[in-house]
Amino acid sequence: MDIKFESIEGNSIPYMVMMSAFALMAVVGLITTFFIIEKGLWVTGMTNRVPWGLQIVMAVYYIGLSAGSLVISGLYGVFGKQEYKPFARIAVYLAMLFLIAGLLSILTDQGRMDRVFVEPFVYFNLRSMFSINPILYIGHILICVIYLWALFTEKRKLTTIVATTAFGWAFCVHSGTGAIFGFGARVLYESPLLPASFVAAAMASGTALMILMIVGLFKVTNRHVDDGLIIWLGRFLAVCLLVVVYFLMVENLYRAYVVELRSAAMYYLFGGIHSILFWFGLLLVGCFIPMFLLFRRKTGKQIRWIVLASALVVFGVLCERYVIVIPGLTHAPEIIAGMEIVQSPIDEGVANYSISILEILQALGVLGVIGFLFGFGLKYLKLLPDEARIYERAVPAVANIRKDESGVAVGK
Question: Cβ contacts of residue 369 below 8 Å, gap of 6+?
């Protein structure tokens, strides 16, 4: 299947407005970050009890989108499905940008940003997921660069090798991110299912975002994409959502079943704003409504409903990242199992946390950086195909056969 990839002209007024908006967001985020570094992280509302806020939520979210985006490129690069070749380049480019966004989110959350470039690589510790993950993240970006080069140069054998490596590495990256929480000491973090749950949510959110990007980009640039390609991705997204719901159900049933974890489970499920995000943001809006739309015969074959379902999934997984990171910190920690703490320098009980305007400006700044890089790539890299159609395999010609009166087959 001969596909011609092109870049956009990037001379239109909407494009210039978009790039200017992203640049402004990046500048505002940079200024906000310098202000926070000078004054201290306390100005964001974070405390010793809640040292992670919106930026860490967004970091985990972006890393998941990065891993999930590679699923679409893997359909061509790993499994050889030619009909999804038109989406491979844009998927790999987005995967690289999202991982950069995740790293920028982590970087802007640090009180001592200078240590980020030294400590994880000089003092390497195999028993610490904080030490292992920087290696996974940097390796992932390098693999994406090589993957893109193989796609641009049309090196099919190299593409398959690198795509398979990138596919497996992406699973390691998000499993490692999930292990930061799942292998931790906090009651609402510790779970061997969390790495696998992170991967499932990453595949769902990455696929959903790629559906939105593909439909939106092809519509804006007046390119044709066969509905059948999007419909198949919608079905794949529905299956991913089933896996996400299964992991959520098992994990929370386990917490509710074990006596020692029951109090934490009640806090998680019915304890405040995070519980609302869990039941309504994640489960209802992010899982059940999209599954209804995607599995239903009528709406599951209409692009506008698939797009709506994808948008709901993207929002729902963002809620999922929030209810993983924040409640685990605000919930009262059990410092000594079975003992009551009568005096401690750390405040006991449930901690308070709310997203501050400074954190929002930082998050918008990171979004502005990757948005600007994405627009830059569309203009200067040949990322978009001229069209995307269902690949029709050649059918061998068969002679027209008839039988004579004696039953002997003869050609017409």
Answer: 22, 26, 29, 100, 101, 104
What's the whole-model pTM score?
A: 0.87
Angle at 126 between CA 125 and CA 132, to 5 degrees: 85
**Residue 213 confidence (pLDDT) above 90:** yes
Mode of pairing for the β-strands spanning 387-388 and 224-225: parallel
Q: Output phi, psi for 69, to 5 deg.
A: -65, -30
- What is the DSSP code string of 324-340? HHHHHHHSPP-SSTT--
CATH domain 21-335+352-411 topology = Formate dehydrogenase/DMSO reductase fold (1.20.1630)
Question: What are the C-alpha distances in Å from 381 to residues 90, 199, 373, 374, 375?
Answer: 10, 30, 11, 10, 10
Q: Which residues of 102-129 are buried (b: 16+ CB within 10 A; e: fewer)?
A: bbbbbebbeeeeeeeeeebeeeeeeeeb
User: Worst-scoring range by mean pLDDT, 22-36, 57-71, 126-140, 314-328?
Assistant: 126-140
Torsion sign (Cα): 52, 347, 189, 240:
negative
Q: Under 8 Å CB-to-CB from 360, ≥6 apart: which residues?
A: 54
d(CA 220, CA 246): 37
3-state secondary structure of 124: coil
Q: What's the pLDDT at 320? A: 92
Q: Convert 28-90 into a string of H (helix), E (strand) and C (coil).
A: HHHHHHHHHHHHCHHHHCCCCCCCCCHHHHHHHHHHHHHHHHHHHHHHHHCCCCHHHHHHHHH
- Alpha-carbon distance of 273 to 256, in angstroms, equals 19
- Closest to 268 in 3D by CA, of 281, 287, 255, 286: 255
CB atoms under 10 Å from CB of 137, counted, come to 21
Q: In terms of DSSP H, where are the helices of 258-356?
A: 259-270, 273-276, 289-295, 303-330
Residue 101's alpha-carbon distances to 96, 191, 216, 377, 400, in angstroms, are 9, 26, 21, 15, 60
Residue found under tokens 């068969």 = 398
Encode pLDDT of 284-302 as tens digits: 999 999 999 999 999 999 9
CA neighbor of 199 nearest in space, from 179, 226, 223:
179
